[in-house]
Amino acid sequence: MHSVGVTLANANATLERFAWLGDRLAAAVWRRDIVEDETAYDNPGHHTLSCYLNGGYRTERQKLPGQYGAPQRLCALPGDHESRWWVRGHMHFMHLYFLPEHFTRRAVHELDREPRELTLADRTYFEDANMAALCRSLAAQPWETSDDRLRANETAHEILSQLLRSQGVRRDDAPVKGGLAPAVRRRLRDYIEAHVAEAVTLGDLSDVACLSEFHLSRMFRASFGMPPNAWIAERRADLARQLLRTTSLSAEEIAARTGYANASHFGHRFRAAVGVSPLAYRRAMARG
After folding, report:
1. What is the DSSP string of 143-196?
2. pLDDT (mean) for 31-56
3. CATH code of the domain in which 243 resides
4. What is the pLDDT of residues 60-69, one digit of tens each?
5. How far apart are CA 259 and CA 287, in angstroms?
6. Which of 101, 141, 219, 233 makes the best surface tag, with the fewest CB within 10 Å?
7. CA-based Rg of the chain, rounded to a whole angstrom?
8. What is the rounded distance in angstroms from the CA atom of residue 269 to the CA atom of residue 251?
9. Do 95 and 27 form a contact (C-beta atoms < 8 A)?
């Protein structure tokens, strides 16, 4: 997945730290000290957010001569991009590696947009103080234990939310057919949010959308980026994480609020989605 990292390793960059953070997200901290070298990225297949921690003052992208890096400057590199860089002097930087679906799946909930519409902008040396602060925080956090990585995962998702809002752009090849009308998509999104504690069925959603179950299932996937059952499961897991972080509710109470049959069912589903038990997740967040 992290082919940008492979390119850097082959260019004799020093990998100081690397970790898989869960949800197929990965983070790395790199260092380079070199007189001058050319580095090229060709369709890496995954998105990369780069944040300079130190140095980079003489590094420039070849198609943007005269624009140089500096601490807290950011680069957004889409999975299908190509770029060539002149690297000079000292650089210390953090990378967050993620898949296109990580970036776009939050579009419905956070931007009222379809995931298939959006992609990551190709941006070089943009500035965003809040995002840079989060990146520096992620780079400074420990990643060694499972608890460390859970906390780092939360920071990474916060970065992706900000990145979507500031650097999400419409795809040039975005499909225009096959999905739900915007008003129907919003109605379904809001219905699921309001009834997430209940046993929402495909029949319920088809009634809300005034579509047959067959057509709803196909059109829902096109507009939400996943089938209805997967969307509902993800929203329940997100709500459960929020409640575990911000309340002292028991597992039984959270199960009731998030649509799980009982605490045992909640624990099983939460572990499958997050990788740890609800209790372990709550303890990890409390220690952060």
Report:
1. -SSHHHHHHHHHHHHHHHHHHHHHHEEE-TT---SSS--HHHHHHHHHHHHHTT
2. 95
3. 1.10.10.60
4. 999 999 999 9
5. 27
6. 101
7. 21
8. 12
9. yes
